[in-house]
Design goal:
single chain, mainly beta, Ribosomal Protein L25, Chain P, RNA Polymerase Alpha Subunit, Chain A, domain 2, 2 domains, six-stranded mixed β-barrel, four-stranded mixed sheet, 13 strands, 11% helix, 46% strand, Ribosomal_bL25_long, rRNA-binding, Large ribosomal subunit protein bL25, Ribosomal_bL25_C
């Protein structure tokens, strides 16, 4: 479980001091809940997120244990360091928006024809209850040749999960290398 601290002050000097001490600034929010300004050790947070197997994970802030989902994050444009993260509390029975990751399996046959595998969309936005949320979408790319794509309409999602992207949006494809 990831442990964090509640931030007392949200002023700019306080945020800079926390970042200097190696903390990642976070906001935790949810429907009908009071927002929590928190901070996590940056390296612990990144290690924990790399090793998690589900979309949701538990955090402990101020004595409360919450099940959360990463909704948004901000990186420094120069150093690519993680600066800020928004965590949404995953409440049972509440239908809300989530972003689920896309994974690929296999080796596309278009790679042998000097093609490049492009993952156009890394996370697909869906709307569902947390109980129905899939941990990810795995796509088999072995039959993709140069110029072929897998579109949103080609993905089968459970009936209780709705994707609100245009069905013509490509998720993964093989493009011709120049």
């Amino acid at each position: 479980m990831l442990e964090g601290i509640v931030r007392d002050s949200i002023t700019k000097p306080a945020v800079k001091a926390l970042r200097k001490d190696g903390y990642l600034i976070a906001n935790i929010y949810g429907k009908g809940l009071e927002n929590i300004s928190a901070a996590f050790k940056r390296n612990e947070f990144i290690k924990y997120l790399k090793n998690k197997t589900t979309v949701t994970f538990d955090v402990k802030v101020g004595g409360n244990t919450l099940k959360v989902v990463v909704q948004e994050y901000q990186k420094c444009p120069i150093t690519s360091d993680l600066l800020h993260v928004d965590l949404m509390v995953a409440q049972a029975g509440v239908r809300t928006s989530y972003k689920i990751p896309v994974f690929t399996t296999g080796s596309a046959k278009g790679l042998k024809n000097k093609g490049l595998l492009m993952l156009h969309t890394r996370r697909i936005p869906v709307k569902c209850k947390i109980e129905d949320l899939p941990n990810g979408i795995t796509l088999d790319v072995t039959n993709l040749d140069t110029g072929d794509n897998i579109l949103i309409r080609d993905i089968t999602l459970p009936e209780t999960v709705d994707c609100y992207l245009d069905p013509r949006v490509p998720v993964v494809g093989v493009i011709k290398a120049k």
